[in-house]
Each structure stands twice: as structure tokens, then as C-alpha cells.
Amino acid sequence: HGFVEFTDVEKSYDGRTFAVTRMNLNVARGEFLTLLGPSGSGKTTTLNMLAGFERPTHGTITLEGQPVDRLPPYQRNIGMVFQNYALFPHMTVEENVAFPLSVRQVSKADIAARVARALDMVRLQQFGDRRPTQLSGGQQQRVALARALVFQPSLVLMDEPLGALDKKLREHMQLEIKQLHTMLGVTIVYVTHDQSEALTMSDRVAVFNQGAIAQLGSPDDLYNTP
Ligand code: ADP
Ligand code: ADP
């Protein structure tokens, strides 16, 4: 079996129209796959089904051969990063990053060491005691990245993670995310409507149109398609 497999997946929220239709898709371990397409084309629905937040109306989605919704959400080995960061405002940076470990039965000593390493990875080692509101947008998104990576998930899902940042910072963060992907060898499924971002970052791009994948290929394949 593939690392991630979508088999004949469909999703309808209203029983009449389809947010996602007849989707068949394999993602290889270690791959950086981007879902690219206009608003309303089904990218977030696809990501949410892969996260196990939404159930397909039809078809199956497996991660390492197991249905993704077999485990309760917090036990899934999937890290998530959202556009709005979704940090806990009442917690410090360290507490935010520690959260996924605290719900996974990791010892206190282990938590401290892993949180320190994850903050180091995103170069926020000096900011552990701050609250999210005391950080810039880019720093907040790096906290969210550290929190998504701290439990060493095999799969990380990112939904427009750089959408709230200005252009210069976005380009900088694209590089940081690529470096983390390469260093950790983690599989990333990344959603964006920004074509240049998709072409810069991805091993493969799935181009969405009206709930279906219209094209799938490497940036070179897509760029050279007439
Ligand atoms: P994208 O992420 O590409 O913008 P979405 O997956 O969010 O696309 O949306 C695909 C379609 O599904 C749209 O027509 C949208 O209105 C619809 N949709 C998404 N989420 C819901 C929901 N929770 N309830 C009803 N319809 C939804
Ligand atoms: P190696 O496995 O050769 O030590 P890696 O590139 O996998 O090298 O990791 C480099 C460092 O980052 C190691 O100390 C590793 O334990 C740590 N590390 C790897 N993955 C994660 C992760 N998801 N979150 C936090 N630290 C990690």
C-alpha cells in the first residue's frame, strides 16, 4: 500500500452537490505534495478528510494502510498547521508546543527536552516564556510549526499556513518550511491558492478544479504543459 491512499473518495455536505468527487490519490512517504486551486475547489475538504476531521460520503482514506479515522483525533500521528495559527492564547509558547506531548503520555523530562529541540528548530529558543500575542505573525507561525512537529509525526498537513503573512516574510517562511521538510524527511500535504508558492515548494502539485484533481505532476511537468 501507499503511504497515503485516497480511493474513490467523494464528499457531499448537502447530499446534492459534491465538494470532492471521485478522488484517487497516492502520496509517497517523505513527499511534499501541494493542493493548488481557487477558493471553493475542494482543497480544505480534502485536507480535513485526510486529517480525519470530516468523513468521506463515499470511499476510503488510509495512512500507512490504516483508515485515518481509526484513532481519536489527538492520537493520530498527524501534525497540523493552519492559516490563523490556532495557538492557545492563555498558554506560553513552551506550553503551546508541549500540548501535543501532554496528550500523548510523554514523561515530563522528555517533554522539556523535545520542546527545547522543537523551538530550536524554528529558532525561537529565546521566546519560550512569551504569550502568542507578544510575538510577530511570522514568529507565531513558527510556534505553530514547532507544535505540529514536536511529536515527530510522519505526516504534516498545512492549510494556507503563510496566507496571513506579507510577501517578503512569506518567501522567507517558504524556505524555512522546505528546510524542515528536507531535514526531517517528513511527509507534507500543503494547501495554497498561490501558484508560485506551489511551484517553488513542492515535489508534486495536485491542481484542483471544482472538487476534482484536474492535473497532477511535478512543478516541471506542470510548467512545461502547453
Ligand atoms: P477550498 O479549500 O478549495 O476553498 P473547500 O473544500 O473549502 O474549498 O470547499 C469546497 C466546496 O464545499 C465549496 O463549495 C464549499 O462551499 C463547500 N463546503 C466546504 N465546507 C463546507 C461545510 N462545512 N458545509 C457545507 N459546505 C461546505
Ligand atoms: P538524526 O535522525 O540523524 O538525528 P534528523 O535530521 O532526523 O537527524 O533530526 C535532527 C535532530 O532533530 C535530532 O536531534 C532529532 O532528534 C530532532 N528531530 C527530528 N525530528 C524532530 C521533530 N519532528 N521534532 C523535534 N525534533 C526532531
From TrEMBL:
It comes from the Bacteria. It comes from Mesorhizobium album. Its EC number is 7.6.2.11. Belongs to the ABC transporter superfamily. Spermidine/putrescine importer (TC 3.A.1.11.1) family. The gene is potA. The keyword DNA damage does not apply. It catalyses: ATP + H2O + polyamine-[polyamine-binding protein]Side 1 = ADP + phosphate + polyamineSide 2 + [polyamine-binding protein]Side 1. The complex is composed of two ATP-binding proteins (PotA), two transmembrane proteins (PotB and PotC) and a solute-binding protein (PotD). Keywords: ATP-binding, Cell membrane, Membrane, Nucleotide-binding, Signal, Translocase, Transport. One of its GO terms (molecular function) is ATP binding. Part of the ABC transporter complex PotABCD involved in spermidine/putrescine import. Responsible for energy coupling to the transport system. Residues 4-226 form the ABC transporter domain. The keyword rRNA-binding does not apply. This is Spermidine/putrescine import ATP-binding protein PotA.
